[in-house]
Amino acid sequence: MKKTIYDIAEELEVAPSTVSKALNDAPGISKKMRERIKKYADKVRYFPNANAAKLKTKKSFSIGIVYSENLGIGLEHNFFSSILQKFKEYVESNGYEITFVISNLGNRKLSYYEFCQQKNIKGVFIVTSVPDNPYLKELIDSDVACVTTDIYFDNLYTVISDNINAGQKAVKFFYEKGFRHIAHIAGHHYSLAARERQEGFRKQMNEYNLPIRENEVIQANTYSFEDGYKSGELFLKQPNYSKAVFVVSDQVAMGFIKALQDNGVKVPEDVSVIGVDDLPFSKHYCPALTTIQQDTTKIGLTAAKKLIDMMKYKEANKKGITKIPVKIIERDSTI
Amino acid sequence: MKKTIYDIAEELEVAPSTVSKALNDAPGISKKMRERIKKYADKVRYFPNANAAKLKTKKSFSIGIVYSENLGIGLEHNFFSSILQKFKEYVESNGYEITFVISNLGNRKLSYYEFCQQKNIKGVFIVTSVPDNPYLKELIDSDVACVTTDIYFDNLYTVISDNINAGQKAVKFFYEKGFRHIAHIAGHHYSLAARERQEGFRKQMNEYNLPIRENEVIQANTYSFEDGYKSGELFLKQPNYSKAVFVVSDQVAMGFIKALQDNGVKVPEDVSVIGVDDLPFSKHYCPALTTIQQDTTKIGLTAAKKLIDMMKYKEANKKGITKIPVKIIERDSTI
DNA sequence: TCCTTTACAGAAACCGGTTTTTATAGTATA
DNA sequence: TATACTATAAAAACCGGTTTCTGTAAAGGA
């Protein structure tokens, strides 16, 4: 049977409170007593009942993950899962555990905030590209520390790739290769990242005084291969299309390239394509994708550190933004 | 401030125990009283403190995930993460939540079993391909219900693809296309799935009385693209190599194919290749991969159902195996 | 009509910790 | 030496539920 603090106390012939204080390094205990108790507790591999402790202290070492699955991709989404993986590693190595914040627990419906209240969760990492959940606002406005990625909210700390710079870097890259006409396959406007990438694209085009052909700014409705393919077909219909294309993401870029290939247009010989992400698979695509790499390791780590700070030191600023630099990975989809 | 059961009791001028009984549908309460209390609790959005409840009842709606990250891939591993995703969806829709079982919590080292003890976790899903963790055995031998995938243990319930059949299906597929020489890129022997796929391969070859050229059973050390590439180079060195190759996984198959392509050997014109998995990217590879699809949805769901059963009904058999059927997806890497 | 059940609600104990309060030494101060 | 202070350990209260025990009024049976 599992030992309680009372067992320890009895076996050592001391008071339960003494045991508690000894194990928690609380004051009011002699060094000798503390060591005796610690040694014994170690020997019998005593572990405190977390529920009892949390009931009293209202503290918990849990960090919530709000992982929206609106698109049905969830953990299979490579970009998010790799951020989450790094996040998880960091917080776990700091003694926290992660819990998915869900909206039905033990057959009762509850909001994200209520879930956190119930579990004494003081900090959450919001990982979603679709900020349309009604529960989200309630959570953000509460006293729960929140960090997010890929979306902005007022009063919320965001860790995100420098997407504007991503757009700029893509244009710069093409410009330096001598291209003067550059097309853009954009993402849906509900995606912040997509909007910013387009913004960066436009900014840098203007900087270089390059004309933007609006018919060559084509919007892909989702981040999918299929919508990339469609955008490729649409692109080919444009008269005298550009020879350089900046695509909002690698996944879309792959579909886009496939459409070109299926229509006899060669990449990179006829058209150069650059994507964004650097998914594990991007380097194995044919052609291997030139892309603007998102640093998922750094995003996950930064988010984790920030969140733990916010939870530890109440005074840490609860809003703001950290932009994670991106870099170009040149491969074979560009000349 | 969050309401407690005492607040409710006071406001309704009844005893706390009465409130508890009413909300839990426990006997000994009149219908009228029960409804009055429930209605009021609903109105003020009362939610019980989970820690207090768990402290007393020792029940929890947590399911542990032992997610081994020895290879540093963790959640980014597509096959596992997609199983996990389905598992998660199912258990969550049944009112459970998932918790990652970790070995340091709040700065204390503890074994998987101790973690579960502490958190009152009664069931875990073990997702790992490398069963070398010393903590694992302790957990499996304990009273915690365990379900796993992709590894076998005595006294443990396993949900796994029918890998032997996968090997057989691959050989059959080639045989029916007229191939009589079939090579196999095998996985490392520590992987159960890899061993079984090879077993199926050999079994079916024997069935057809086809000779197995042992020099064409090449072992890839890991499931990586890179090792696939290496095995491709090695394969090409074999004199008069076969025109049909069954590769242990899609990832390895992609590397394998790349090696052939880089050496001027065309797939499928010169060599037909079939993999196993059907990763999200497999259909986008060039050539699109013919593969034996693992049904991750069914694996995840089956594991979830089984585990919940085991937790609910103690008598449910704790060991056994469910083999999930696989099916061939024919694409462009085979003639 | 009187006694025994039964139904229901309240009181109290309990889960296993933590924290506050109290008691008792031993030590310092006057 | 008497008193005040400190350090330490025990006792008790508490966190917020659940469960058991108790008491009482109404219903049922003789």
How would you describe this protein?
2 copies of one chain form a homodimer. Chain A is elongated. Chain A is built from 12 helices and 14 strands. The N and C termini of chain A lie far apart (69 Å). In chain A, helix 9 links the parallel strand 8 and strand 9. In chain A, helix 10 crosses helix 11. The longest helix of chain A is centred in the last third of the chain and has 17 residues. At the A-B interface, helix 4, helix 5, strand 2, strand 3 and helix 6 of A face helix 4, helix 5, strand 2, strand 3 and helix 6 of B. The structure holds a DNA duplex (30 and 30 nucleotides).
Question: Which features does this protein show?
Answer:
homodimer; 335 residues; alpha/beta; 6-stranded parallel β-sheet; 6-stranded mixed β-sheet; 12 helices; elongated; DNA-binding
SSE topology sketch:
The structure is a homodimer of 335-residue chains.
Chain A: H1 5-12, H2 16-23, H3 31-43, H4 50-57, E1 62-67, H5 78-93, E2 97-100, E3 104-105, E4 108-109, H6 112-119, E5 123-127, H7 134-140, E6 145-149, E7 157-161, H8 163-176, E8 182-186, H9 192-207, E9 217-219, H10 225-236, E10 244-247, H11 250-262, E11 272-277, E12 290-293, H12 296-312, E13 320-324, E14 327-329
Parallel strand pairs in A: 1-2, 1-5, 5-6, 6-7, 7-13, 8-9, 8-10, 10-11, 11-12
Antiparallel strand pairs in A: 3-4, 12-14
Helix pairs in contact in A: 1-2, 2-3, 5-12, 8-9, 10-11
The first copy, chain A, binds a DNA duplex (30 and 30 nucleotides) through residues 4-6, 14-18, 20-21, 24, 26, 28-30, 33, 48-58.
